[in-house]
Amino acid sequence: MATATQSIREIVTAEPSAAAILERFEIDLCSQADTRLERVCAELQLSVDQVLEKLADAELRARGATAPDLESYSLSRLIQHIVRTHHQTVRQELPRFAELSQRIAGKHGEMAPQYKEVATLIEQLRTELFAHIEKEEQVLFPYIVRLEEAAEDSSAEPYECPRSVEQSVSVMTRGHDSAGRIVGQIRQLTNGFEPPQWACPRNTAFHAGLEAFEKNLRQHIHLEDDLLFPRAIALENDIAQRR
Ligand SMILES: [Fe+2]
Ligand SMILES: [Fe+2]
Fold first, then answer.
1. Distances (CA, A) of 36 to 5, 50, 101, 120, 212
2. Which pLDDT tens digit goes with each residue over 134-159?
3. Which of 108, 121, 124, 168 has the smallest number of Cβ neighbours within 10 A?
4. Cα 102 to averaged position of ligand 1 atoms, centre (Å)
């Protein structure tokens, strides 16, 4: 757990999720990197206890999340989990990464030109994934929920979907492949998300954030490609055969 006598750099190095919390209190991770938290709080007239409390909450959330048994979930519940856990991460993290990567490219682009490419790739990832999750939430997921309702109540008709689940899934899978490729390129350009020697705490947290995002995205894609979509296709075929 973070303490008041640790420097900002020590706090963020030990727990990268602390970066976002400290920035919310308008603590500058770069210029204050080697200052103790208690001193930074005194300068900004912040309650050090309140900051520590928020840091402890974030650490517990980052470490304490136990993996639910997703295989036993109904399709509707699985969709709810995907939207709350993974789509939320896409919406929250990509705009933050886009801004941070632009800032790093602007500041260090001469010395480390790969960050200009990283910034371009993050922008591309944001555009693609925002459109992708929107399509899932507006079209495909509601259709799968209706299919499940129709399977439970034989009198209910799933509403017409312009495409079958199988056709929609092939479009979505291509989107997953593309996102996976972009993240792989970012991994390569950042030397496996390893911050450079000269990195300030904000930059270190950026790399750690990207690494956590990659893990989250792989799990997101796995849940859809290997769990949700095959079960939805099987359910659609099953209902078609019964009618
Ligand atoms: Fe998704
Ligand atoms: Fe998806």
1. 5, 15, 26, 35, 26
2. 999 999 999 999 989 888 876 666 56
3. 124
4. 26
